Each structure stands twice: as structure tokens, then as C-alpha cells.
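User: Okay, second chain of the day. Same drill as before: sequence in, C-alpha cells out.
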Amino acid sequence: MKQSLSKLPAGIWWTAGIILLVVLAAVTWTFWYPAANSAVDATIAVFRPSPKPTGNTQDGEAENDPSDHSHADHDHNGHDHANHEHTSHNHDAHEHAGHDEASSLSLSTQGMRNIGLTPDYLKPLSLQTFRKSITVPAVIVERPGRTQVQVATPMTGVVTHVHAVQGEAVEPGSLLFQIRLTHEDLVQAQTEFLKTLGELDVEEREIARLRDVTTSGAVAGKLVLEREYARDRLSALLLAQREALRLHGLSEQQVEQIAQQRRLLRELQVFAPSIDAHDEDEIKLTARRVQPVAFQPEIRNPPPAADARMADPPTDQVPTAEAPLVIQQLNVHKGQSVNAGETLCILADYQELFIEGLAFE
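Assistant: Same drill. C-alpha cells below.
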């Protein structure tokens, strides 16, 4: 085996050695390549010629003859080589220290606009008060007890018509439901109210008749006083019955309608409520006046301004219409029987919302 290895030609040994060196260089290039690259750059910088000054010769300056020029070049090469080399070294070191490509970045005007470096941000340094601030993610949430409005039926009945559609935006005062009343107590209260109204009318006519008869002396005045006392008792009873109807859920207009038409209320109309203002009850996180970011609907048919200066009133005096309400949830359908206090729908007022920050303590 030793004899066969010794008989191999020298060219094979050279080829194997070169291949081995290439493999080692490829494996260890991360160790020797940066140092070698720096050495090459330094060598190139040493032999880089310095820029020649440009300028015109002065008037009257004589041109050197070839012999003098050769001699001057010889002296320059012989005596000023060290100085020239030192100057090139300093110039190259200055360029690398101040204008290193690895530590500087050049941006065009378009590039500065793309990353937001506008003149509003690029300002000279100045002394000012430092205010510590943090940035936290946040989500928009509803105002507890303010955003959602629950619409419930005040009396027992059967839904005869549904005007509301889930997801629809309705204005306050819009008709939402029609309910046929079937509550026995409400029917009884209306009947008693109409009965008292009839008795009061009879007493009024009787008092008017007795006053005419009393004037002639045919009837004593005591009888007129008794009728007046009875009328006062009926008036007090009528007032109590009117308030009882209000407690059953009827509005003042509905009670007045019963009194004028002398007919029982058979149908209940449910309208969208108005949103109450609770600015004084809201949480105050700062003493500064906060301008809310909210939807302000356009004023319909604004009155014409008498003068151009009066066309734009102050901001705090501009009348604003009520914002629409969104029907978030609809719970009933036509023909459904509902009890007093049962929820018909849920409205949402998105005019003002809260921003809830999600931060750890």
C-alpha cells in the first residue's frame, strides 16, 4: 500500500492540495474575509492619488523647459513622496470618518414624504416642557346606561302592527308599534272615568237650573249649595281617576282624548322616545372643556337670515336636531300577546360613544 501511494504522480498531489485549500477557504471565509477586505481597502487608499488643484497660471509666469520639468518631477518623487502619502492618508481617513456609507443614509424628497418627514416634524431643537405620555390600543364601546334605550309596553295587549325594522334608523317620536289593549284594569279605569265625567255634566246642568229657580224664590238656596258640594266631590274624584289612567301608562294627550270624545281607548301607539341629556352626570376626567366628536344632523328649513353677519351664529347657540336612533333588537311580531313591562325593542343612540383603552396596570 505504501509503495502504491509513493508511485502517484506529483500533479495529483498538487491538485488534491489545491482542492483542500479551496474547501478550507470556503469553510472559514467568515473569519478571514473581513480582515482581508479591510487590508485591500487600506492598500488602495494609500496609493490613491490626491486631487490636483485647478487654476490658471498668472500672467508673466514662464513655462519650464523639459529639462527643468524632469528635474522638478524627480525632486517631487524623491523628496515629497512622504508628504503626499501622509496627505492622502489623512484625506481618506477624513472621508471614511465623516461620510461612511454604513453610518449615513441619503433620502430624496419623495422618500422623506413617504416616511412622514414633513416640515411639521423637522424643526430645530428648542427648550420646552416635557410631558410623559404612553400609547395604548383602544376600542370604541357603548356608554353604559346611555347608549341603549329599552322600549317596553306599559299595558297588556296584542300587537296589531309593527312599524319598526331591525337595523333601521328612526327619529325620536316615530311610530314603532300599535297594540290593542286587553288589560281588564285599564278598561275598568276608563269606564269609571267616563262615568264620573257624565255625572259631573249632570251636576253642572242641575246647578244652572236651580240658580234660575232660586232667583225667583221658588227653591231655597241651601239646595244649590248641596249641589255645588256634590259637584266639587265629583271634580276631585275625576282628578284622581285621571291620575290613575296616567299610572296605567296613558299620556296626558290620550287621557284628554278620552275626556273629549267620551270613548274608551282601544289601541295603544308606542313611539320612539327622546334621548335625555346627562352632561352633568357624565364622568369628568379633566377640568378642560371637551369638544365631543358626534354626529350633528342638518337643520331642516332654517329661517332666513336678515343680515349676512347673522347667518352664522355662535357655535354654542346653534340649534341641533335630535340624532336618529338605531333599532338594535326587535323582540315582538304582529299578533303576539304582550304583558305590561315586556320589552318590545331596544334602541341604540350612537351619537356619543366612549373610547376604552386596553392597558395593563
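Residues 184-216 form the longest helix (33 residues).

User: Thanks, on to the next one.
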